Structure formats: C-alpha cells, structure tokens
C-alpha cells in the first residue's frame, strides 16, 4: 500500500506547516520568474500572416479584437483529421466564459489557431459546445514559424527549443520517426503597441498544463493526477483496491 501514513491531527498539522514553508518559497520563486518573463525582449512581427475565421480572412492584428494583448493556443488539429486532438480538447473543454471575461477585463484576448481548414474547426467547436474564437492558419507559415508544426524537410525540426535528434537521444524516438509534417501544442503571447505587433513569449509541453486548471486541482489531492509517472507509484491503484465493494 502506498497510501499516506495515518496520523493524529497534531502530527498532520506539524507536517502541513513544514510543507507550507516550501510552498511559500515556491510562490516567491514563481513571482520572481514571472518578473523575468515580463522582462524578456520582444520581437516585432513583420510577416503578413493570414487566418480564416467565420467572418472571413483576418490578419494577426485583427485577432487581437482591439485589445493590446493576445494569447494564442496552438490547438493540434492536422488538416487531414476529422476531430481535434483529445488532449487539447480536454483542456479547452475547461475554458469557461468567466475565464474569457476575466482576460478581457485585463485587455487580453484568448484565441485558438490550428492548421486544419475552418469548416473542420467550426464543426468540432460546435460538437464541443465551445464559444471562443478559433481560426485556421491553413496555407500560412504561422504554425511553422511559432514552433508547433514539425517538418524537417522545411527546416522546422525543433519543439520546445530541442531538436528532433535531441529528443531521440532522450528516448523519444517517435518525435523524429513520426510522419511529417505533424503538429504539437503550444501557447504564444503577443503585444500590440501603436499598430505594431510583437511576439513576447511562448511555452510548450508541460508549460501548457494550466489550460483549464484541473491538473493543478488534482495536484492538491492525495491521489494526484493518477498518471503512471507520478510518485509514489501505484497510489491510485492502492486506493481503489481498498474501497469496499457494496454492490453485492
């Protein structure tokens, strides 16, 4: 059994207060890291990217919807797929109207962009019952330039600032051997100043797990995310086997 030790309330309180010291240190580190993130240099966008939306063709500036900041979630949807990526879908399922409203209050727009044609995006959006902006970058270099479409034949052989050879050396050979081009998830941030658009930040892989937020809530629980890589191993299995079966 890998379940937590059974303790008295006083023992629990002592352990909790010791952990709180580390949590406060992590919060302070997070705040300091956010300052560094905000102080990153920015790059002006000089390419005329075009996107397809329900109201026609738009520029990157149009996607800002008149606000100074834009967060784009690069949703994995290959042009040949009929359904969106399950993992991306799970995250966007948790994006609420309140979340969008809160971003808008801080002059920030949130939108999805994928390579699949608009009709497929609209169909999947309707199937999921989503009400948020989603644009097709089909035919443009946008996904390639922002590191979420992998195509070594065109020189796009990196994801999350590592080459495909580096992934293969780490044991992730499929990153290199998978049929290309293929898409990966990501998030890119932009700033608009005096009609000029700047790229300010990007994150990939586990940096995206804040989408929706359910993982962070599961991190608060004794069983965690119930993933195979988590420690201690087998905890969720131990909990399930300890639950009495009242069905008989």
Offer a few descriptive terms.
6-stranded mixed β-sheet, two-stranded antiparallel ribbon, single chain, alpha+beta, globular, 12 strands
Write a structural description.
With 248 residues, the protein is an alpha+beta fold. Among the domains are: 40-148 and 184-208, Glutaredoxin (3-Layer(aba) Sandwich); 212-240, no CATH class. Helix content is 36%, strand content 21%. It has ten helices and twelve strands. The strands form four sheets. The chain has a six-stranded mixed β-sheet. β8 and β9 form a beta hairpin.
What is the CATH architecture annotation of the domain at 40-148 and 184-208? 3-Layer(aba) Sandwich
Q: What share of residues is helical? A: 25-40%
Q: Numbering strands along the chain, what is their spatial order in the largest sheet?
A: 1-12-11-4-5-6
**CATH 4th-level superfamily of the domain at 40-148 and 184-208:** Glutaredoxin
Taking all residues together, what is the mean pLDDT?
93
Largest sheet: 6 strands, mixed
Topology, number of strands = 12
Structure class: alpha+beta
Unreliable stretches (pLDDT < 50, length at least 5) are none
